[in-house]
Design brief:
- The complex is a heterodimer of chains A (about 550) and B (about 110).
- With about 550 residues, chain A is mainly β.
- In chain A, about 5% of the residues lie in helices and about 35% in strands.
- Chain A has 4 helices and 39 strands.
- Chain A has a 5-stranded antiparallel β-sheet with strand order 1-7-6-5-4.
- In chain A, β33 and β34 form a beta hairpin.
- The longest helix of chain A has 9 residues, at about 365-375.
- Chain A starts with a strand and ends with a strand.
- Chain B has about 110 residues and is mainly alpha-helical.
- Chain B has a single domain, classed as Cytochrome c-like domain (Cytochrome Bc1 Complex, Chain D, domain 2), CATH 1.10.760.10.
- The longest helix of chain B has 19 residues, at about 30-45.
- The chains are: A mainly beta (about 550), B mainly alpha (about 110).
- Chains A and B meet through α4 of A and α2 of B.
């Protein structure tokens, strides 16, 4: 079923043989500028590049160098990986290697999966990209397999089913390589799954450990679920975590409880909507922090856990930052999971009356209590897509600000009866979007992590969901649903440059230095969650079609 | 056969074509059940209340009258990017979905 489409002639021309891509290199990924080695531009997921050639003064000379067709009409969320002059990029149905100098395809390997799997993808048929390690590429697939390819040829090296998709599982996550272990998590929180995070041997694909993200009745935390509700309790783990090699911990977020109707699973429901700190070699849970206990609103806690050091009350703290779906921006002590600060970062938030200042436990609003008690339709902000969805943020240590594609939408939410059936969407709730009067469902924000306050905001109209890149050139790059790819001044949000790509952008941009020239790349391709659910007028006007475009300064 | 278009059915059986202006009619209970199934199983691709957001798929509000077999077939076996559902839905349930799609048109 899986066939490699290889072009021998092109391969012969390919200037680069198989290369090792070592653990030592990965450890330096966030300082490395001549490659894009990991998801998030480094284990800390800062999405910050120290490069300055393209900066607030030169950016107006930024021009496209080449573009490449992904030959696919689904939503494209792949973050390119770049190593020794080769770019690796994915769609749901193929993995590709491109020569970064010419944009030409070196190899393309197709991946076929049963069509019925697409009905399990709640939020779009997509893939978020590869991990690279020791000359191999690793990716996940919509039918919940994990596959390794030879980075030089695209030849499949192994292919392991993580779990049968028939039970409602899919995978779109970019794997993480930490301490020599390949780590990934599953999607499917809307399909009655029991979520998990898994460690595999990159050499063979064999599973080394699996950590289920809902606590079974006989496990610690099992008493936070009534009966056997943990069995289908959700807590998917569908976005890539971060890694602190010094502390030896991987940080990985978990998603919503299932079904959405939280009255059916009274209790905190560990470990839904949480941040987990795990040992990469064993999957041992070292600490956890739960953002939204007993979540009824699909407020996943999976968003990117960004690692940095902040001065808190005069003391340097090793922190983890997260702009959570629930509308609060969290600062946690990543050595022990202690809550340091949580502040509202969206304009409108009605599901809670705030967080307990000591513990961060949310204080449910009367509206939330009402909807859970009566099941009646109630307007709740933010919507089930959150104050920020998957779009990874960037954190600039230079400005101390987090740059976020924030969302500004509410929903009319009510409880709706439904029957569980294997592998089929199961919410026990219904929702309809409420758009803001001014039409600005998307707002780019520069957020101070310790106050949640925005230093500047740029209203963008349609709800952007692609992710942000910040650079030491004082620039912030992000793509829009309209297909525009823009650069803003990191200090004040002034738009300095823009280019219209072929479709809407749902993927995070990257930058690197190619032989003395700073390059910027972004994948374009409208689709996925916003296109499926949000009745924003702009979204209906965007053409489909996946592509990658690479930019550099004009000579 | 839970289709209530008895008169039309009789005409068809008698060898006469369905009059161009004849609308199929459906049991409200079927429509209600179809609506529930739609929200659970179809909505994420075809839009809430069949209002397609643009990035989605076939606009079901435009599904032509009188093509029940095509509907049953496409939903059971799939068609192009439309995934098959025959393994998770019974033919009765797909009939209820048909009732919802056709019976709740404006």
């Amino acid at each position: 079923m899986k066939r490699a489409i290889l072009c021998a002639a092109l391969l012969a021309l390919a200037p680069f043989a198989a290369q090792a891509q070592s653990a030592a290199e990965l450890l330096k990924a966030s300082k490395t500028t001549d490659a894009v080695l990991t998801y998030g531009l480094g284990y800390d997921l800062n999405r910050f590049s120290p490069l300055t050639q393209i900066n607030t003064k030169t950016v107006k000379k930024l021009v496209p160098k080449w573009s490449y067709s992904l030959a696919d009409d689904q939503g494209q969320e792949s973050q390119p990986i770049v190593y020794k002059g080769v770019m690796y990029v994915t769609t749901h149905k193929a993995t590709m290697a491109l020569d970064v100098n010419t944009g030409r395809q070196l190899w393309k390997t197709a991946y076929d999966y049963p069509q019925e799997v697409q009905r399990i993808a709640c939020c779009g048929v997509t893939n978020r990209g590869v991990a690279i390690y020791e000359g191999k590429l690793f990716r996940t697939t919509l039918d919940a397999h994990v596959v390794a390819y030879d980075a030089a040829t695209g030849k499949e090296l192994w292919n392991e089913e993580a779990i049968p998709y028939h039970d409602g599982y899919t995978m779109t996550v970019t794997p993480l390589i930490a301490d020599g272990v390949l780590i990934l998590g599953v999607s499917g929180g809307e399909y009655g799954i029991r979520g998990f995070i898994e460690g595999r041997d990159p050499a063979t694909g064999k599973s080394l450990w699996r950590r289920y993200t809902t606590a079974a009745p006989d496990e610690k935390g099992g008493d936070t679920w009534p009966g056997d509700t943990a069995k289908r309790g959700g807590a998917p783990a569908w976005l890539t975590g971060s890694y602190d090699p010094e502390l030896g911990l991987v940080y990985w977020g978990t998603g919503n409880g299932g079904p959405w109707n939280a009255a059916l699973r009274k209790g905190a429901n560990l470990y839904i909507c949480s941040m987990l700190a795990l040992k990469p070699k064993t999957g041992e849970l070292v600490w956890h922090y739960q953002f939204t206990p007993n979540d009824p609103f699909d407020y996943d806690g999976v968003n990117d856990p960004v690692l940095t050091t902040l001065k808190v009350d005069g003391k340097d703290r090793k922190v983890l930052l997260q702009a959570n779906r629930n509308g609060y921006f969290y600062v946690l002590d990543r050595t022990n999971g202690e809550f340091i600060k949580g502040s509202q970062f969206v304009d409108k938030l009605t599901w809670a009356d705030g967080l307990d200042p000591k513990t961060g436990v949310p204080i449910r609003s009367a509206l939330t209590n009402k909807v859970l008690e009566t099941g009646e339709e109630t307007e709740i902000w933010p919507s089930m897509l959150g104050g920020k969805n998957w779009a990874p943020m960037a954190y600039s240590p230079k400005t101390g600000l987090a740059y976020v594609n924030s969302l500004n939408m509410g929903m009319k939410y009510k409880i709706a009866e439904a029957d569980w059936r294997r592998g089929v969407m199961w919410l026990e709730a219904d929702f309809a979007f409420v758009l803001p009067e001014d039409g600005n469902a998307g707002i780019l924000r520069a957020i101070d992590p310790l106050t949640g306050k925005s230093k500047w905001t740029v209203p963008v109209g349609a709800p952007d969901n692609g992710g942000v890149l910040a650079t030491a050139g004082d620039l912030v790059f992000t793509g829009h649903q309209t297909g525009e790819f823009s650069a803003y001044d990191a200090s004040n949000g002034e738009k300095l440059w823009s280019y219209q790509t072929a479709s809407g952008i749902e993927a995070p941009p990257v930058t690197w230095n190619q032989g003395g020239k700073q390059m910027v790349a972004v994948v374009s391709g409208f689709g996925a969650v916003m296109s499926m659910y949000v009745p924003h007028p702009v979204l209906g006007t965007v053409p489909k079609g996946g592509s990658v475009t690479v930019f550099q300064l004009a000579d | 056969m839970r289709l209530l278009a008895v008169a039309a059915l009789a005409l068809t059986l008698a060898g006469a074509a369905l009059p161009a202006n004849a609308k199929e009619t459906f049991d409200p209970a079927q429509i209600a059940h179809g609506k529930k199934l739609f929200a659970e199983i179809c909505r994420h691709c075809h839009g809430a209340n069949m209002v397609n957001m643009g990035g989605g798929s076939f606009d079901l509000r435009t599904f032509p009258e009188g093509q029940r077999d095509r509907f049953m077939n496409s939903v059971t076996k799939g068609k192009n990017n439309m995934p098959p559902h025959g393994d998770v839905l019974s033919q009765d349930e797909i009939g209820d979905l048909y009732a919802y799609v056709m019976g709740s048109k404006p």
